[in-house]
Design goal:
By secondary structure, this protein is an alpha+beta fold. Helix content is 43%, strand content 23%. A 4-stranded antiparallel beta sheet has the order 6-5-7-8, with helices on one face.
Length: 444
């Protein structure tokens, strides 16, 4: 059953990404006036098709691992049966500028999809655990910087990081670097932010599975810090406040939110001696949790406090700028990691194929629709960047041929294009085989 879920997640994810990508090509091709013969989602024999009044066949094919837009082209005769018309315009008759536009439209559509997803997430709003730190291991860079448990990471290298996922992505962008990773932090109860510099040298250069958090001493935690105190609750009446950190209960040290909840729930109607830290000073409270009946029988203590969560939400207009910024940042990160892979700063073993995509898509879908959409947007950006590479058979390669045609004032010779295509096929096939090999080694 789990395998089927992963397979379904892969098919849906690739289907969305490919359909959007090819729709970009299709729209600009239609605007150019060229005869579009087929718009196919998937490869192989069509299992469903419909032809519109302009003679374009829309098809869903049997192998759901890609897609294509086939235009009328004298260089590829007889590949698809269709009824020709006297006014048909072929791809080779288009100006180089139109052909460049058609090539770039696919990756552009992927960036538009990513922006639309980020805009939607910002408008609907997402709630995440605030990235707060546990105790740093002795000898780690974070311990050397004397960062206290419960400290929140606000930004990495000046980029706002409201969630652990964004911190991970920001750190990934520093792989192979030498210098300082600059954390902007905020201590519990403190209004002012602090700057923490963590020195790195050839940080995880070429490593297969870099431990981004562990090497710096970053320990994600959900400490017993109050994010909200419900109005009129036992906690409010006792004098507890937002940002208070629980130190101990009845003399027992409290190190996590889960431990705090267990102690409170186990003491319905019984007074607890609670020591909290506020503005760096210890304070003691005697608090009696309210009694709450459980559905299955029994009772549990209840105070009326919640952990420190963050909701990221903007209005439809404000979300536009945030969506654009998020798309730009993720694109820059993808380009940076791609460059570091070429230079050897990032191991090629981090290259992922369809098996990893299926696992990531499946796991994110089970974690919630917002997680899945975030992964979909990131994959869409990756697909857009990949197709812009100046490799023949990719969209970037078509752009290179068209630019060469503009420079020399005439088409690139068929032999040159054929050799370029063979080289492109070799490179792309090599990357795919390496990605699949990496996927298999991760499984075993």
């Amino acid at each position: 059953m789990e395998l089927l879920q992963y397979l379904l997640a892969l098919i849906v994810t690739l289907g969305v990404l490919v359909t959007v990508h090819e729709a970009g090509h299709f729209i600009v091709a239609r605007l150019s006036g060229v005869r579009v013969v087929r718009f196919s989602v998937g490869f192989g024999r069509p299992i469903w098709s419909r032809t519109d009044r302009r003679g374009t066949e829309f098809a869903i094919a049997a192998i759901p691992l890609g897609g294509y837009v086939r235009m009328l082209d004298e260089r590829e005769p007889g590949e698809i049966d269709f009824v020709s018309r006297p006014d048909d315009l072929s791809y080779t008759q288009l100006s180089p500028w139109w052909r460049i536009g058609i090539a770039l439209a696919g990756p552009f559509a992927n960036f538009v999809l990513a922006f639309a997803v980020y805009w939607l997430l910002f408008v609907v709003g997402t709630t995440a655990v605030v990235p707060m730190l546990g105790a740093a291991p002795v000898g780690s860079p974070l311990a050397a910087a004397d960062v206290r448990p419960g400290t929140e990471i606000v930004a990495v290298d000046g980029v706002q990081t409201p969630t652990w996922q964004q911190i991970s992505l920001a750190l990934a962008g520093r792989l192979g670097d030498t210098g300082d990773i600059v954390l902007t932090t905020r201590s519990p109860g403190a209004g002012a932010e602090q700057t923490v510099r963590l020195p790195i040298a050839d940080w995880h250069r070429g490593e297969d599975e870099p431990d981004l958090f562990g090497s710096l001493g970053l320990v994600p935690a959900l400490p017993a810090v109050f994010g909200e105190v419900i109005e009129g609750s036992v906690a409010e009446r006792a004098g507890l406040r937002r940002w208070d950190r629980v130190v101990s209960v009845d003399g027992e040290a409290v190190t996590s939110w889960g431990q705090w909840v267990e102690l409170v729930q186990a003491a319905p109607g019984r007074a607890l001696k609670v020591t909290i830290e506020r503005d760096g000073q210890p304070l003691e409270f005697s608090i009696t949790p309210a009694v709450r009946a459980l559905e299955g029988g029994g009772e549990a203590g209840f105070l009326g406090v919640s952990p420190y969560l963050r909701e990221v939400r903007f209005g439809p207009i404000d979300a536009i700028s945030h969506g654009l910024a998020e798309t730009w940042d993720k694109t820059a990160l993808t380009l940076g990691l791609l460059k570091k892979t070429v230079t050897g700063d990032v191991s090629v073993k981090n290259l992922s194929g369809p098996i990893t995509i299926a696992r990531v898509a499946g796991d994110s879908a089970r974690s919630g629709w917002s997680y899945y959409l975030g992964i979909l947007a990131l994959l869409s950006i990756s697909l857009g960047v990949l197709n812009l590479l100046p490799i023949p058979i990719l969209d970037g390669g078509h752009v290179v041929f068209c630019v060469a045609e503009l420079v020399k004032g005439g088409p690139v010779s068929e032999r040159t294009q054929a050799v370029g295509t063979q080289i492109g096929l070799f490179l792309v096939a090599g990357m795919m085989l390496l990605a699949i090999f990496n996927d298999i080694t991760r499984l075993f």
